[in-house]
Amino acid sequence: MKTFSAAQVARSIGMSPSAFAMKFARDDWRLFSNDRPENGHAHSFTLGQAMVYALARELAGCGFSSHDAFMIALFGLEQSSADAMTTGVGEIFNEARGRTYFAAYHEGTIGEFFFEDGKLSHLFSPFNDGSEKRRVTVIDLTAIRDRMIASLEGQSA
User: How far is it, in rounded angstroms, from Cα 144 to Cα 124?
Assistant: First the structure.
């Protein structure tokens, strides 16, 4: 599985490497494992892991706190990936099924992703459960992934 450096991930999501590092220093974001890099080697990230950081950045730009945005992205993508039987955290649906979107609910700070197959399936189902969820932010994960891949392919380590 191909991995990317922190600097590559930072640039692919529109951040400077120092701003990316500050998210971890301030405990807004977390690494995906407790593993320490081997002597002198930096952390590396999979595309799926980078997707979580990209989504967290997008959510923070939509009014979520940086920490909440990360937790919503992490658990929303992790749970939705398991439910959808995709291949892992941050993996999105095959485009043959349509574009993949992520819905983040401001009340209760939860999120989930879904695919569009000619209609926005599932989008309003969370509002039909009798809860007080009234605000939703919807983000196009397919577009984020495509931008990230284009950026990562254009970078050198």
Answer: 22
Q: Per this entry, what is the length of the chain? A: 157
**14 vs 98, more confident:** 14
What is the DSSP-derived secondary structure letter of residue 95? G
Neighbours of 105 (CB within 10 A): 20
Average pLDDT of the segment spanning 44-54: 88
CB-CB neighbours of 68 under 10 Å: 17
**pTM of the complete model:** 0.79
Q: Which helix (H) or strand (E) holds 22?
A: helix 17-25
* Structural domains in the chain (count): 1
Residue 39, CA atoms < 13 Å, CB-side half-sphere: 0
DSSP secondary structure letters along 133-147: ---EEEEEHHHHHHH
Range of the domain at 15: 4-153
* Residues linked to residue 102 through DSSP beta bridges, in sequence order: 113, 139
